[in-house]
Amino acid sequence: MEDKIRKLSALAMGLLMLLTTAAVLTFFDVRAWSDVEPERAQEQTEAEPEQEQEQDMDMLSGMKLLDSDVSTEEQEILEHQMQMELPAGVGQEQIRVENDVLHRRVTINIPRIAQDYYFDHPLRGSSTHIDDLQLGSEYGGGVIEITLDKVYEVEAKVEDSWLYLDFIPPRELYEKVIVVDAGHGGSEPGAVKQDIYEKDINLGIVLELKKILDGRPEWKVYYTRTEDVHVSLNDRVQLANLSDANLFISVHNNSTRTGEMSDFSGTEVMYDEEKAGEELGSERFSTILLEETVASCGSRNLGLLAGHSIYIIRTSQAPVALLEAGFMTSHTELNLLNSSDYQQKVAQGIYQGIVRAVEEGF
Length: 362
Ligand SMILES: [Zn+2]
Hints:
This protein is of the alpha+beta class. The chain folds into 2 domains: 54-168, Immunoglobulin-like; 172-360, 3-Layer(aba) Sandwich (Aminopeptidase), CATH 3.40.630. 31% of the residues lie in helices and 26% in strands. It contains 10 helices and 17 strands. The strands form 4 sheets. A 6-stranded mixed sheet has the order 13-10-14-17-15-16, with helices on both faces. Strands 1-6-7-4-3 form a 5-stranded antiparallel sheet, with no helix packed on it. Strands 5-2-9-8 form a 4-stranded antiparallel sheet. A hairpin with a 4-residue loop joins β3 and β4 (105-111). The N and C termini lie far apart (55 Å). 38% of the residues are buried. Zinc ion (ZN) binds next to loops. Zinc ion binds at residues 43, 183-184, 190, 198, 252.
């Protein structure tokens, strides 16, 4: 009897939701991504405010359409899962799932879905880990955008014309989670010496590192960028924080304070001096990274540098190390840094640093 009442009240709730969603239908939600404006730092300055993503179709806010009226047994599953009934004849191979970990946005494209479909077939799931849900359609297909509270790996499967999306914390799937950041990018070149941009050297090193790390599938490595694009400082550090990264490495190159060319050269690593002495923390990881990079490159060891004033160091919850591989203001080192041969050596040094850190228990 009690069960029956519960079912009836669930039905009533369903009807009520349907009525309230009719009201929601009349206006469309425009997402506002409120980014924390990072403070200016000597190494990384934030030139532009966060660029809003272009949105060329009307999206419907789906948070109220989320059907979370479920039994307690289901609740636990739906915390990390989303379910949706698919239109007849749509199979797994027709569904496209993209996971933009930098913005924690999962985009799902499903054919044969028009805007009204969502009202008859609400998504089932809990809003616990969802910051935003947008539903839309274009070219006769449905577009679902889910913004998650953390970085998750997404696994999609179709069973009996239902789509199941699992959101899995990367630490549950991989031995280690590592975030690699190529400093600057896009409109921010970093240091510029003799028409050579720091952002390009940083990326060159990171892409060499990626080649090596691709051979370690037991580690999940997230890259803040693998091309010449602008990435906000906040997005960079949040990728590390919200993926519970074991290690966070930012790759940069140096110039003298005046910016004038000189003979001064060498490698240094910035760490968070406010967390000095922390076991398996920023200082220890920075020390390892410095030693291994210097050993691999044969560069001068300039030691560790206090970096708490740097936004991504100060706000990182993961053990962070910001490598300044070499000086672009040194003719000799600039030529080296600009060669793929030397970039490989830097990458090899970083890799050895990661290996040693993992061996030490990071
Ligand atoms: Zn830099």
